[in-house]
Amino acid sequence: MDILFKTSVFLHVVAAVLLVGGTFFFRIVLHKYAERTGGLTDELKATLQKRWIHTSWNLVLVLLVTGVFQMFQRLEAWRDTAGHMIFGIKFLLFLGVVAVLAMVTASKGEKAVRRPKLMLINIGLGVAIIGLSTWLARVAM
Ligand code: HEM
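# protoporphyrin IX containing FE complex -> structure
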């Protein structure tokens, strides 16, 4: 494994942790707190949502760029394994994450926090993708 591939996987995993963990924190902690106490001001809510959505899209970009690079590095190693199939399922779920994020983005700022079900879907998809990814990384070993 060369240094470029290792660096790519490192960035990929950091982005994955931040995207799934950030969505989890936003939905499970912040959203609940705001719902129960009304303790966040509208301005703070709007700022958090705007920054979170912006950051999420940047993380999606990092995942896509590093992920495509890693895929090309692994194509040969996946030959005669379940690698291609696992990758295909993972990519479809990733498209689901992007579609959900696009819906949250389209609902803009203040309204985004009213799309809690969508965020739960993305947490679920994220966890499923992480499961597939650990499997995927091991078929090439
Ligand atoms: C929400 C989106 C994503 C998440 C949460 C995610 C998560 C991960 C994680 C945690 C790993 C490391 C697994 C391990 O080493 O045990 C991984 C590996 C990998 N990911 Fe992703 N990923 C995402 C999107 C993508 C995308 C869009 C692509 C490609 C277009 C991709 C391609 C890959 C490849 C090829 C590997 C395997 C690297 C290897 O063989 O060591 N991922 N992913």
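# post-check
Helices lie at 3-37, 42-74, 83-106, 109-112, 116-139.
Residues 100 and 112 are 11 Å apart (CA to CA).
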